[in-house]
Amino acid sequence: MKLSLVVSTSDAAFDALAFKGDLMKGVKMAKQIGYDAVEIAIRDPSTVDVEELKELLDELRMPVAAIGTGQAYLADGLSITAQDVSIRNRAMERLKSHIDFASIFNAKVIIGLVRGKRDKRALDEVLELFVESLKELADYAEKKGVELVIEPLNRYETDFLNTLEEVKSVLESLDRKNVGILADTFHMNIEEVSIEESITKCGKWIKHFHVADSNRWAPGAGHLNFASILKALHDTGYDGFVSVECLPLPGGSEASARLAFKTLQSVLKEF
Ligand code: LER
Ligand code: MN
């Protein structure tokens, strides 16, 4: 397993990002601390200078673990389950542009907040829209060699697909090989009965992993047991990135990214 740090383009609305504001600065800082890769949260790929970014990443030999898409929902209100078909279509177009972007960097694309909310609609009705949209995106991504990861989110951020098991059952019926689960310790700490048992049960579907401590501060600043969580993940055969997505706490962006790195590295060296 390798360590990645979430960095963001300058117009980030989501605040659980260690390096919000200056993408290039964030990438350089991640490299300097010792991270193996970055994950980039992007509202709209058309706002990013791809050439400049690619040049820097090539120079630093930093791969891109994944592309986050939640800002398309938070800042622009786009959702792939929106009742309004024009919003849904715009969400699909935006995510296809995220997939195009990801294909350049050999990165996965995250479907988290951009799935939207039920907002009092029947679960079946919303899941039907979700599956229809997801199949279209998975087929588009397949042609580009890109994998999608669905992130179970806690109940305070969305009102469907909150647990790993719920996402797993959607994926079992989807019949698409390039879609998996993104498990995030912050959300699991709220929603799962046992973080370790859920990881073990859904292990074969986990294709990406986010870490923050219980308070969404850097790993090491709360009360999650990363030794047993990462051991459970390791035992599933997972060999992907462990990506730090935390608030810039304690001590700001750099201090929190350093603490996260130190905490996780000391756990991972045992495997
Ligand atoms: C994103 O990865 C996440 O964890 C959410 O809480 C917000 O998008
Ligand atoms: Mn996350």
What descriptors fit this protein?
8 strands; binds manganese (II) ion; 45% helix; eight-stranded parallel β-barrel; binds L-Erythrulose; alpha/beta; 271 residues
> Rg, please?
17 Å
Mean pLDDT: 95
Strand arrangement in the largest pleated sheet: 1-2-3-4-5-6-7-8
The assembly state of the depicted protein chains is single chain
Helical percent range?
40-55%
Structure explained in plain terms:
With 271 residues, this protein is of the alpha/beta class. Helices cover 45% and strands 15% of the residues. Strands 1-2-3-4-5-6-7-8 form an eight-stranded parallel beta barrel, surrounded by six helices. α1 runs parallel beside α2. The longest helix is centred in the middle third of the chain and has 21 residues. The protein is globular, with a radius of gyration of 17 Å. The N and C termini lie close together (9 Å). The mean pLDDT is 95. Bound molecules: L-Erythrulose and manganese (II) ion (MN). Manganese (II) ion binds next to loops.
